What does this fold into?
Amino acid sequence: MIIVMKRGAHRSQADHIIEKITEAGLKPVPLYGTERTVIAVIGDERTLDINHLKAFPGVSDVMAILQPYKLASSDTKKERTIIKVKNVEIGGNTIAMMAGPCAVETIEQTDASAAKVKAAGANILRGGAFKPRTSPYGFQGLGEEGLKILREIGDKYEMPIITEVLDPRDVPLVEKYADILQIGTRNMQNFRLLEAAGKSKIPVMLKRGMSATIKEWILAAEYILQEGNQNVILCERGIRTFEDSTRNTIAIDAVPLIKELTHLPVIVDPSHGTGRPSLIPAMSRAAIAAGADGLIIDVHCDPENALCDGAQALLPDQFNEVMEALAPIAVAVNKRLANSEIKCELKCVQNN
Ligand code: PEP
Ligand code: MN
It folds into this structure.
């Protein structure tokens, strides 16, 4: 950290800050210039509060050198985190394809969707049992009944299941059935929920808050990591901007940036990211080309009658087309699709 004093700040003001830094167990190195004084801080500056220091008399600016997060940082852990969920790896060379209905409605509907997405090459089944609906009058999910259905269908098709947990009190119930806990955009900064998920033994996929900066999102992940759960997956699902032609604005640049700043796997949700089925194929390809470790896509056999988010769901055939189009992209970024019959070789064309 660098603390820059104002021009003409009194020496006693710099001394006061030096004293505070020393009290915090860090080493202050003051550089007294002719115009102004600069204090460099040596040690783990993350224990200091930048805004608190900015409020000290005589301070002009305070600049952090380290990122505010530690456990998620790629500086702390050089190798990338690969998360193993049953027979699936997330963060390695195989692309994790999570697909299924937005909400579990009935066993037949979940079965139909699972059968189709599995056949198309998806390797993780998604489905909400606790739905975070904007309106209290919307379908809220089947609760435990929905978890039981998802578990049964996941087992039938040998697919690990991912499902959302809304409330810290429900973590023990949801982890009894699920293979991955999903924390949704609306709960990204529900700190008690993050802590409860951090105490869980199963991986957690943390969706980006719809108005969260990258830094806030990583700090939210830090809450989970700090509780001992090292298996955190980040999911870019679009942010809210002035644009209203799409449901959200999908930030594909978040993918390489998360990879640069952290060691955690990153997944993209083009369904919630765009809200428009016609845009999902291109955004899926873009996400994988940008280095995403996987995708999560809403697939419903009868979107017209879906109880949640039918307007953004892909039909199974459309999902199958997405999978086929992803195969060469995966190869181009040295990855492969799991469970897929689709084989693809990139041919080198020589221009002699
Ligand atoms: C979901 O994936 O079902 C969901 C509700 O997503 P989000 O939290 O991104 O809105
Ligand atoms: Mn949805």
Notes: The chain has two domains: 2-63, 83-346.
